[in-house]
Every structure is written in structure tokens, then in C-alpha cells.
């Protein structure tokens, strides 16, 4: 959510930003906010003036009664009654106008960074840089579930009977590999100075609306029936929520946290063959990183964070590239974002395995995450998040890039301590 004062003073800039995000249907919201904000402030000013007048006039009643001026006292009482009546009319109006302003402000997208490429959808995303040499071996690479089945490592049929489509059982070496990746990612981020955290896996609605747009919430979140609770779609939501309604000492910033959690997503819509198996699913696990920092430091942290993910993937012999997300592909709260994509030698192209985002003060403004500076003044923090690793997709990239012609899978040195020293997985079939 952007600053209301900024919108008042720069309505044309806010409208231009909406156009850059190809959300022209939201343009009327800017004028609507200005109109209702004006009404709210006028109602508040009138109410404040009336309250002051009521207090002043009320003091006269006792004095008039003491002087025996009963009729004048009654007239003043009538005036107070009229003021009270008007106040009862103004107070709900003031709240109605303020609520309307907030409702519209929650729908207006954040101001994007000037460096963001302009485009309607992800087809306009721009490749930044490649890391590692993408290789296509001279043998055929099977679909990722077929590789896993050679190790008796996955059971989709049983999961379908138990929970439906979009779920899976991982077994044996593949399950161990999955856990090894999350453990390695955890220690990797601790080594970067991040504090390890296991957060709540459910959050309340005020946290949900604090960290994402309404459109994202509807598309992603599972609600617990009869409770004000939602299953998290990604752990940065509960991690950022940890700081809700806090005033933080500037000297203690930045807060750098890395979290493990299961994640739950609706994943609506039909998906092609490449998004089946364990690519696009309703339940998965992930290692995440978040940063809460001073506004002037967020750009530097953004660069650090996506580079951590690249470093981790390269340590596991997986080539990757980064894509700069265009304006139309940015969620409403994001200032800037890039995707990290892993190389798929089977598909002969890259696919998304993580995303790094700078959200400016949008989440902090919604959740009231404030910082107290040395001068005693308070301001909103900046928040950032980034995927360290999401093992289901990482499993796909890892298996394809470390597969040998005989069906065995190499375990890079960085991961071997988490696999009991195993250097190579041998298929059972």
C-alpha cells in the first residue's frame, strides 16, 4: 500500500504507474480515494470543531444555573444537544469515508522501481545473467517422475487416493534427497548470517491482507473453515507477520531470517505435462529468506538475496539464470522482482525455481512495521523475501542435471554430508 499523502500530492504519477502495470480498470480508484479522503478529513475537522465547541459551551451551563439564569442554561443545553446530534451523524460518516479510502488504497499497486522493464505479462520478462553452462547430454533424460520411479522414490497413485491430485508420497533415497536439500539450504543461509526460524504454518486474515493483494489471496490461500486462519502459501507471510504492529530500534536492523515450512496452495487452473508430477502441487516444503531493513538498504539487500540462491544452486551443479520481472508480471505490492530459473536438460530450457522480491514499505505500511530512528522519528521499514530452495522443483532440476547415462545420480560434495557420505544414488530399476 502506497502512502496516502504521496497519492494526494502525486495523483498523475500514481495513475501512470497503474498504466505501466496494465491495470487501467484501477485508474478510477485514484480519484475516488482523493474524493473520499477529502470527505473524511472534512468530516473529521467538523467533528473536532464541534467537540471543542461542545466542551466550551457545556462549561457555561453550570455557571448560568448558579446565576439563576435557567432559561439561558436551557438554551445552551439545547445547543449542546444539537451538537451531540450532529456528532452522532458525523462519526459513522467519518468512519465510512476512511474505510472506503482504505479499501481502495489496498487495491492500488505499489510504485515500481524505474529499472523495471515495462510489459503486460511474463513473456516480457528480461534475462539478466546466466550462471553455469547449460548442458544437453547425449542420452535421453526421462520425465522427472520416471527418474524417481527408478529409485522407488515416488507414489502419485497412492497420494491421489489419500488426498487427490496435486499431492505425492516421496520414498527412500528421493525422500532423503529432498530432506538433505532443505537441511543444506538451512545451513547455507545460517552461514550467511541469517537466523533460522520455524514459523506458524497458519496465519490470521489481517496478516494475509497485510502481506499480499486480495487477488493473490483468492488464487493461493486455503482457509480453515470456521476459523480466522489460513494455511500459508509460503513462509515469508508468517515471517513478515512476526513483526506486525511493532516499533523496532533502528540500531538492530536489519533483521535477516531464514525459515523452513510446508506450503499450501490452491494452484487453480489446468496445467500442461511439464507442470505435473511434483512441479505444480498443492503441498510442498521450502526454505525461505526474509529481510526487514532500513529503506536506504533495501536495494543492496535485494542484490545480495538473489545471489545467495544462485550460489546455492551452483554449489549443487545446477546451471541457472535470472529473469527481471516486467511491470505486468509484478504482484501489486512489489517494487522490483526477479525469478531464478534452473536449466532443464530434458526440456532444453530454463524453468522457475525461485523468486526474489523487494516490496518497499508496502507490507510494513499495511502491518504497521515501524522503525524508531536515532532522532526519535518513526518510519516504515522495507521488507524483502526470496526463495532459498523449494525441493520439489529443485529435485527436478537436480535429478536432470546430475543424472548419468546408466540412470545413477551424482551427489555433489556440498550435499554429501547430508546424504550420509553417499556420492552416487544407484537406481533399483
UniProtKB/TrEMBL annotation:
Residues 143-412 form the Aminoacyl-transfer RNA synthetases class-II family profile domain. Keywords: Aminoacyl-tRNA synthetase, ATP-binding, Coiled coil, Cytoplasm, Ligase, Nucleotide-binding, Protein biosynthesis. One of its GO terms (molecular function) is transferase activity. The record marks 387 as: Important for serine binding. GO terms for cellular component: cytoplasm. Signal peptide: none annotated. It is an enzyme of class 6 (ligase). Pfam families: Seryl_tRNA_N, tRNA-synt_2b. NCBIfam families: serS (TIGR00414). PANTHER family: SERYL-TRNA SYNTHETASE (PTHR11778). This is Serine--tRNA ligase. It comes from Agathobacter rectalis CAG:36.
Amino acid at each position: 500500500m502506497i502512502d496516502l499523502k504521496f497519492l494526494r500530492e502525486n495523483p498523475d504519477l500514481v495513475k501512470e504507474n497503474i498504466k505501466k502495470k496494465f491495470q487501467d480498470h484501477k485508474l478510477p480508484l485514484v480519484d475516488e480515494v482523493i474524493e473520499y479522503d477529502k470527505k473524511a478529513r472534512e468530516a473529521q475537522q467538523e467533528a473536532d470543531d464541534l467537540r471543542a465547541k461542545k466542551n466550551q459551551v457545556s462549561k457555561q451551563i453550570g455557571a448560568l444555573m448558579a446565576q439563576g439564569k435557567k432559561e439561558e442554561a436551557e438554551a445552551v443545553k439545547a445547543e449542546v444537544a444539537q451538537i451531540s446530534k450532529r456528532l452522532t451523524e458525523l462519526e459513522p460518516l467519518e468512519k465510512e469515508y476512511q474505510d472506503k479510502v482504505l479499501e481502495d488504497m489496498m487495491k492500488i499497486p505499489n510504485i515500481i522501481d524505474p529499472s523495471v522493464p515495462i510489459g503486460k505479462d511474463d513473456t516480457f520478462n528480461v534475462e539478466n545473467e546466466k550462471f553455469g553452462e547449460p548442458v544437453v547430454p547425449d542420452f535421453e533424460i526421462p520425465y522427472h517422475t520416471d527418474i524417481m520411479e527408478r529409485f522407488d522414490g515416488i507414489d502419485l497413485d497412492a497420494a491421489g487416493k489419500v488426498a487427490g491430485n496435486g499431492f505425492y508420497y516421496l520414498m527412500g533415497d528421493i525422500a532423503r534427497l529432498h530432506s538433505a536439500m532443505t537441511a543444506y539450504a538451512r545451513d547455507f543461509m545460517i552461514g550467511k548470517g541469517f537466523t533460522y526460524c520455524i514459523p506458524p504454518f497458519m496465519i490470521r486474515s489481517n496478516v494475509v491482507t497485510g502481506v499480499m493483494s486480495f487477488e493473490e489471496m483468492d488464487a493461493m490461500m486455503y482457509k480453515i473453515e470456521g476459523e480466522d486462519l489460513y494455511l500459508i502459501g509460503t513462509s515469508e507471510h508468517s515471517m513478515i507477520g512476526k513483526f506486525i504492529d511493532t516499533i523496532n530500534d533502528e540500531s538492530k536492523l536489519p533483521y535477516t531470517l531464514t525459515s523452513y515450512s510446508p506450503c499450501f496452495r490452491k494452484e487453480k487452473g489446468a496445467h500442461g505435462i511439464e507442470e505435473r508430477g511434483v512441479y505444480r502441487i498443492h503441498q510442498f516444503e521450502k526454505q525461505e529468506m526474509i529481510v526487514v531493513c532500513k529503506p536506504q538498504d533495501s536495494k543492496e539487500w535485494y542484490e545480495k538475496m538473489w545471489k545467495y540462491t544462485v550460489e546455492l544452486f551452483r554449489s549443487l551443479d545446477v546451471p541457472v539464470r535470472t529473469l527481471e520481472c516486467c511491470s505486468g508480471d509484478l504482484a501489486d505490492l512489489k517494487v522490483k522482482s526477479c525469478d531464478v530459473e534452473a536449466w532443464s536438460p530434458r526440456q532444453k530450457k530454463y524453468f522457475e525455481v525461485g523468486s526474489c522480491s523487494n516490496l518497499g514499505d508496502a507490507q510494513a505500511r499495511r502491518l504497521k512495521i515501524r522503525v524508531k530512528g536515532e532522532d526519535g522519528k518513526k518510519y516504515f521499514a522495507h521488507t524483502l523475501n526470496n526463495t532459498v530452495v523449494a525441493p520439489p522443483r529443485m529435485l527436478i532440476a537436480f535429478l536432470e542435471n546430475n543424472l548419468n547415462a546408466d540412470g545413477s545420480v551424482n551427489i555433489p560434495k556440498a550435499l554429501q554430508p547430508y546424504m550420509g557420505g553417499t556420492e552416487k544414488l544407484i537406481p533399483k530399476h
